[in-house]
Design brief:
This protein has one domain. Helices cover about 70% and strands about 0% of the residues. The protein is mostly helical and about 70 residues long.
Length: about 70
């Protein structure tokens, strides 16, 4: 929680929205970690790893609406 910011700067609705966004980021990392097996990549070339990561993140972002619709 943010405790040192006055109510005039951040009211409860803004704080709630910030935590909602943060939760979406946490869900994205969970999907990437559990679905795309990033910890099992054994690659030495940086550009190759970057390309794989960007591709996997893009795939995760495209599938996030599916997770939201399941609720």
């Amino acid at each position: 929680m943010i405790t040192n910011i006055s109510k005039e700067i951040l009211n409860t609705s803004i704080i709630t929205e910030l935590y909602r966004i943060r939760w979406q980021i946490e869900l994205l990392f969970k999907v990437v970690k559990s679905t795309f097996f990033l910890d099992k990549m054994h690659v030495d070339k940086t550009k190759y790893v970057e390309a794989i990561l960007y591709g996997k993140l893009l795939g995760a972002l495209l599938t996030m609406p599916l997770y939201d619709s399941v609720d």
